[in-house]
Amino acid sequence: MNQQFSPSRTSHQDVTTSSRSAFTHEPRFSLSGKLMVLIAALMILATASLFIGAKSISPGMVVDGLLAQANTTESLIIIESRLPRTLTGLLVGAALAVAGCLIQSITRNPLADPGILGVNAGASFFVLTGIILLGNHSMAEHLWLAFFGAMFTSIFVYFVGTYKEARVNPLKITLAGIAIGALLAGIASSMTLMNPEAFDAMRFWDAGSLDIRDRSLALMAVLPVLAGVITALAIAPALDNLSLGEDIAQGLGTHVRLVQLSALFAIALLCGSATAIAGPIGFIGLMIPHIARRLSGPNQLWLTLYAIVLGPLLLISADMVGRVIAVNEIRVSIVTAFVGAPVLIYLARQVTSFGKL
Questions:
Q1: If we measure between CA atoms, which residue out of 307, 313, 301, 264 comes closest to residue 286?
Q2: Rounded Cα distance, 245 and 309, in Å
């Protein structure tokens, strides 16, 4: 009997080990493989962004311009326009996508993004206030103002959404974000109408564009974006615990409030930096988490890694489309709105209740 049972048990263990391998190693390899493919696609797209634009430039001139071997109009276009906007697309796309993942995670609302929750409006409002009251016009000053504006709005919306609540209420946070964002946008519009100088300073920046024409501005945002992304990756396991419910997360040793506040800090860094250098760009933070989730699954760490790549892919693609479909170019925020509005309608139709798809 024992001799007959032992092989059976061994066979069962082999099947169990094989099954465990199938559900751990193979999916991870698959996820890693898909991520590598997306990274390669992003590298190709970023390179293509240097070659494609409203003005046709030969590949040789592009290479000479990048190597500083030519002093021509084409070289200036490459160095002063296409290269900075490509770098900006990489930073802003990653920042908004990761911020969207964080916002949807802590609010458990699949329709949440930095624009819907008023974070971009808060960053824009603080930049406008600095221009009018303090006379700030440098990008460094815009960066700090946008960061503090995004931080203030994030925390304010969070506390309004959790006021007199034992836990996060996705519906209250969403409504609070929409209301506060609309209020700040209305005040900002009134301020710009009463101040022609502020209107001139804001009318191009407020539309949202990657055409910053200065590499130093993009490099200025590297550190805050990097800090926000690192924070998002660090709290990813804790956010997975939070997805099970706050009570279970606490039972697993997760400090719920600390994780939520850390997420808000990362959101403020990411949205503030992105808004400061490119202006408010909507729908990236809404669409990318859903696309990334379909490719990576619900694991927050993989979701964040995929978002880091998918955000720039979408944003640079939208910028390239805007360059070539019109003579004077279409701003990237308009192109993302054309794509994002139908996606928002589709997602809204799929939502059966707040927080569930």
A1: 307
A2: 29
Rounded distance between C-alpha atoms, residue 125 and residue 190, angstroms: 11
What pLDDT shows up at residue 213? 63
User: Which CATH superfamily, name and number, covers 39-350?
Assistant: ABC transporter involved in vitamin B12 uptake, BtuC (1.10.3470.10)
Distance of CA 152 to the CA centre of its chain: 18
Of the ranges 17-26, 49-58, 252-261, which one carries the lowest mean pLDDT score? 17-26
Q: How many of the other CB atoms lie within 10 Å of CB of 196?
A: 9
> Between these two residues, 307 and 106, which has the higher pLDDT value?
307
353: helix, strand or coil? strand
Say yes or no to pLDDT of 134 above 70: yes
Burial of 126 from C-beta contacts in 10 A (0-12 / 13-18 / 19+): buried
What separation, in Å, do the N-terminal and C-terminal C-alpha atoms of the chain show? 52
Are the beta carbons of 286 and 116 closer than 8 angstroms? yes
Closest CA to 167 of 222, 274, 93, 244: 244
- CA distances 218 to 114, 299, 316, Å, are 20, 30, 14
Instruction: Give residue 41's pLDDT.
Output: 95
Check pLDDT > 50 for residue 80. Answer: yes
Contact 306, 295 (CB under 8 A): yes
- Work out whether the CA dihedral 350, 23, 309, 100 comes out positive or negative: positive
With beta carbons less than 8 A apart as the criterion, state whether 328 and 204 touch. Answer: no
Report the alpha-carbon distance of residue 122 to residue 264 in Å, rounded.
Answer: 14
Residues 6+ apart with CB under 8 A from 63: none
- Beta-carbon contacts of residue 62 (< 8 Å; ≥ 6 apart): 50, 51, 74, 78
The stretch 317-339 carries a mean pLDDT of 82
Place of tokens 């009018």: 132
DSSP state letter for 356 = B
- The domain locations on the chain are 39-350
User: ∠ CA 159-163-167 to the nearest 5 degrees?
Assistant: 90
pLDDT in tens, 216-251: 777 788 898 999 999 999 999 999 998 888 788 888
